[in-house]
Design goal:
Helices cover 13% and strands 49% of the residues. It is mainly beta. The protein has four domains: 2-298, no CATH class; 311-391, Immunoglobulin-like; 395-476, Immunoglobulin-like, CATH 2.60.40; 478-591, 60s Ribosomal Protein L30, Chain: A.
């Protein structure tokens, strides 16, 4: 027993030294297992050999042991660092005992009337050698890392082969109690010295339960990174490992006690196995320690573990006061991900926000209704990052609404609309004393403003600057007074209405919708460039183009008249380009 412990200690010491060297190499060679991967299935093949024996407790037997080996095939499942092994294994090993017989064995004889005793004495050494074969089912649990692993569990099996052989010498003498010559009386004689003795037999040991453990190295972790990359690219990667192992039978296989080892009678001397005699005291435990080599065939590609998510700490402050901005929205998009997605978080009362994000490249967009948005790109690292945003307060769109004739401030109903989706953004009313109002408006959104005052022509316009300031003068609804459509534009020398005329057309349309009782006349005018005939025709065509557009939008044709005046009613000089531009106009009049 002491020798078996000695061998186990030697093997463990050698592997501890190998582990120390392998860990240093493994730290520089990640990828043998691609770190801690998940849900991996393997077919395992293994073989090994080493020191073996069948331990007994006979005080006159010197246990020497022998050599043995094992072969197996099985299944291994791993999840992160956890591993589970099961399979089928065949073990074959030898065991040697050197037996010392405690006494001489005698048998009484009666030969020709003489009283004699036959004496048998076994000489040293008397050797008994065993050959054992076992079919085992191992069930092992353990863990693995990049460079090393361990397993512990039990092996349950049945002994299918149990042979033994004995070799030694013995001495035979005769004691004659009735000799005629007194000199020979009671003296042993007739000695045959060191006669060889040999015997063979079988033993059915039956069930065996062994505690088993192994600790070893993942060989892939010791190989080059290039080799591991090629291996991991295969359909079925191969993982190799070597380990020190120890199997110790916890269930005694000793046979029923059947007397001593030596048997003598009138026919001579014979023997049975030490392990079937009462000399062994019924105790018999298997032992196999040594080195084991395992090849694992990976049957599925592993799922990679979720990457670590270091913290991203973001502060959002007012650029003017440096105070934290609560409820700001931080949108984070990982641009180098296979499937980029945006994660949104809101700042707390102190303007701070924390999120755990995988390392990578990010686009950050910080928004708040009262501030201008801010964007930034960053590289999020393995140890976390802290960023600070200082947002500029959003400027107000400021406007004043006046009566176009009297310059009197008006209490106007203002509506802001997104021109893309026609959704209302905000509504407000200007002050009745000052005609003034202001409103936060979103940026990068096309916005249309609609200004409505009772008894005035409604105005629709596009907002170019959400931080700008505008003054709108609304024309009162007065019959028989020409009103110029100043933002109505045509193609040169043609009656085609250009797209930028849409707000002005909408204003005229709104007037007719909101006041279904009124009728209008549309009049076209030109400058003096060109013939009178051409100018007259062009002014009529432009007036009719506006009439046709309103009819297309649903206005009753009977409510709209159209006429052309050519160059006959200028409102400015035709000697300058500025004057001619004023003369080229379309007016409408409420009838």
């Amino acid at each position: 027993m002491r020798k078996s412990i000695y061998y186990i200690a030697i093997v463990c010491l050698l592997f501890s030294q190998a582990l120390t060297a392998a860990q240093a190499n493994g730290r520089n060679n990640k990828g043998a297992w691609k770190g801690a991967t998940r849900n991996i299935h393997h077919i395992a093949f293994w073989g090994g050999g080493g020191y073996s024996g069948l331990l007994n407790t006979y005080e006159h037997s010197k246990f020497t042991g022998g050599g043995g080996g094992l072969l197996g095939i099985g299944y291994e499942y791993s999840y992160d660092h956890f591993i589970l092994d099961a399979g089928a294994e065949f073990r074959m090993f030898t065991s040697l005992d050197k037996v010392t017989f405690p006494s001489t064995y005698k048998v009484a004889l009666m030969a020709d009337g003489y009283n004699q005793t036959m004496n048998y004495t076994f000489g040293d050494p008397f050797k008994e050698n065993h050959l054992v074969g076992q079919a085992m089912v191992p069930l092992m649990l353990g863990g693995r890392w990049d460079t090393w692993y361990f397993l512990a569990g039990a092996k349950v099996g049945y002994t299918v082969l149990g042979n033994y052989s004995q070799n030694g010498t013995y001495t035979t003498t005769i004691t004659d109690y009735d000799a005629l010559d007194p000199y020979w009386k009671d003296i042993s004689h007739g000695t045959v010295t060191d006669a060889p003795y040999a015997h063979k037999g079988t033993i059915g040991y039956g069930l065996d339960v062994a505690a088993s453990a192994e600790i070893g190295l993942n060989i892939n972790g010791l190989l080059s990174q290039e080799w591991n990359n090629r291996n991991n690219a295969r359909k079925y990667p191969v993982h190799l490992r070597v380990a020190a192992f120890a199997d110790y039978g916890v269930l005694s296989m000793g046979q029923a006690q059947a007397g001593p080892m030596a048997i003598v009678d009138e026919s001579g001397i014979s023997s049975r196995s030490l392990h079937t005699s009462y000399w062994a005291n019924g105790g018999l435990n298997s032992l196999l320690v040594g080195v084991k080599f395992t090849a694992l065939l990976q049957m599925n590609k592993p799922q990679q573990p979720k990457p670590a998510k270091p913290a991203m700490l973001i502060y959002v402050r007012d650029a003017n006061t440096d105070k934290g901005i609560a409820s700001a929205t931080v949108a984070m998009t990982q641009t180098d991900a296979k499937r980029p997605r945006t994660i949104r978080r809101s700042t707390n009362a102190k303007g701070a926000m924390t999120a755990k994000m995988v390392p990578g490249s990010y686009d950050l967009n910080v928004t708040h209704p009262d501030y201008l948005p801010q964007q930034e790109q960053m590289q999020h690292g393995d140890w976390g990052d802290t960023l600070s945003f200082r947002l500029t307060p959003r400027p107000d769109f400021r406007l004043t609404v006046l009566d176009a004739k009297t310059e009197t401030p008006l209490a106007a109903e203002i509506t802001f609309t997104n021109t893309n989706d026609k959704k209302k953004i905000a509504t407000l009313t200007t002050d009745s004393v000052t005609g003034y109002a202001q409103q936060h408006l979103p940026i990068n959104v096309p916005i249309q403003i609609r200004i409505k005052v009772p008894d005035h022509i409604t105005v629709t316009d596009k907002i170019a600057d959400v931080g700008g300031e505008m003054t709108y003068r609304l024309e009162p609804i007065v019959k028989k007074k020409p009103i110029v459509l100043r933002n109505l534009f045509f193609a040169t020398n043609r009656a085609t209405i250009l797209p930028e005329s849409e707000p002005e057309l909408q204003n005229l349309y709104n007037l007719l919708i909101e006041h279904p009782e009124i009728r209008i006349r549309i009049t076209g005018h030109t400058d003096n460039v060109g013939s009178d005939r051409f100018n007259q025709s062009l002014s009529e065509q432009r007036a009719n183009s506006v009439r046709h557009e309103l009819i297309q939008r649903g206005i009753d044709a009977n409510r709209i008249e159209a006429e052309g005046k050519g160059k006959t009613e200028p409102v400015a000089t035709n000697e300058t380009e500025e004057g001619r531009a004023q003369n080229r106009r379309v007016e409408f009049m409420i009838l």
